[in-house]
Amino acid sequence: MLSLRSICCSSLIGLAVSAAPFSYANQANNQSYMPESHRTLADGVLLGNFDSLDPTKKPSENFDLLDWTLTLPTDLNKDKKADIIYERPLSGGFELKPLFYTADDGGMVFACPNVGAKTSKNTKYARTELREMLRRGNTRIKTQGITENNWVFDAAHGSVKRKAGAIEGSLEATLAVNRVSTTGDEKKLGRVIIGQIHATDDEPIRLYYRKLPNNSKGSVYFAHEINGGDDEWVNLIGTRSHTLANPEDGIELNEKFSYKITVENNILFVTLIRQGKPNITKSFDMSDSGYHKNNQYMYFKAGVYNQNNGGEPKDYVQATFYHLDNQH
After folding, report:
1. How far apart are alpha carbons 163 and 158 in whole angstroms?
2. Binning pLDDT at 50, 70 and 90, where does residue 122 land?
3. Peptide bond between residue 98 and the one before it cis (omega within 30 degrees of 0)
């Protein structure tokens, strides 16, 4: 377990689709196909109450972090894996500038260099990212597997659902991406994952923000990974192309926006909310994706998962979260 005293890494950062999505996808904004939790979202109204955020407080004093662990791009114990801050230390006031701390406006800042410690030898990229922990600090419950710490699809077998901590659910967040990578491989520039559902091995969703160096606005899109298979890509604003022209309806750096990710009856719903603009909702039928199988368990993730692993040593990504809520 890491403590504030044991960590010092200020030198890490110099700053201080082949298959069509869900058959109703062309009608994604037809409210009859949305779950009520998305259908009732007001157009152009960001999620959360920012007035309650206090810039003098630690992140866990502004946000309930007992439901989360934090992965950092550091390896202080030299075990060749990224360091993890578990629920109780994290919710007890942990912060670590310049990677994880409270911003001057009270938001929760996540920053990650292009090159840092990774979670395993098979992982390509570093992250400063929260991992959902439904056990809320009860270490008698195992982290991995079909346990009360993780959730499952409603289509899972009844015995699996009885062992799990929850059945399906939602993740919602309001954030601003403050910085993206600007150096290195052009195919990796400007990419950052800001929200995920992770399963036993694969990811039902990875939600991306991407802004290219010559563009003033960024794209938002997501990947759905078939369990044991390939990614299917769905655009919300712009595309994932590394040659994309400035997306007219894109999101600028430091511009606040919200997202809500929901799994309901095997369907993945993603709503993007921008202040004063119509909401955008896309959906994907995951019935044939394999996540209902008896060995599959889920958890949400949020923060910054840097999708660039090269470039200048001081290059990094950063986002500030103003609202974060996991619901089951």
Report:
1. 9
2. confident
3. yes
